[in-house]
Structures are given as structure tokens and as C-alpha cells.
Amino acid sequence: MAEALDALPEVPDKRYFTIGEVSELCALKPHVLRYWEQEFAQLNPVKRRGNRRYYQQRDVMIAREIRSLLYEHGFTISGARMQLKSKGKNLAALPTIDATDSLAAIRRDLETLRDEL
What we know:
Radius of gyration: 16 Å
Strand content: 5-15%
Structural class: mainly alpha
Number of domains: 1
Largest sheet: 2 strands, antiparallel
Number of strands: 2
Shape: elongated
CATH architecture: Orthogonal Bundle
Order of helices and strands: HHEEHHHH
Distance between the termini: 48 Å
Strand order of the largest sheet: 1-2
Helix content: 55-70%
């Protein structure tokens, strides 16, 4: 049995991830992620120069959900695809990282620490 989602590393608070980073965050090989891009419309990283993939935090969470459906719950690819479609509204609501919000949160934390000192 594969590792539980709880055992996966925490997703860092950043805007874009390379396929190698997502591979580590999801405990998958890069070729599996590339295959899933073909099979699941919800997994759609931004492609830039040279066809390099850049995943957003939302994509990482979708990849983890697909991993859970396939490896932990035993769904087939088509079954997982149907399951994701039925959860479509929830997946669309997954947060995307806004750098301004992240910086504001860091600033508040730093100001709190400064005040405590």
C-alpha cells in the first residue's frame, strides 16, 4: 500500500513548482505526472519556453487528490476521472497563491514577533 497523504511533505508557500518539485511533493515519478496531464483535464500546468512545465499550488493539490484516488482508494483511471468531475466545483475552489497575500501575512508575523521583543 502506498504512503498516506498525511505522510507527504508539506507544500511550500510559493507560486510555481517544477515537475521535479511536484514529483517529490506527491511521491510520484515525473513520467506519471506527464501521463496524468493527458488523462485528467483538471491537471493542467502552465507550459513555458521549451515546453517546461510550471505547476501552481492548485495543480499540486489536484495531483495529490488523483494519487489518493488511484493508490489509496483503488479507483481506475476512468473511475478517478469521474470522481474528480463530480468534485469539480470543490477543485475549482482550491486556493491559488497570491504573492501579495503571502507577503502581507509574512509582514504581520514579523511585526508580531518584533512587538513581542
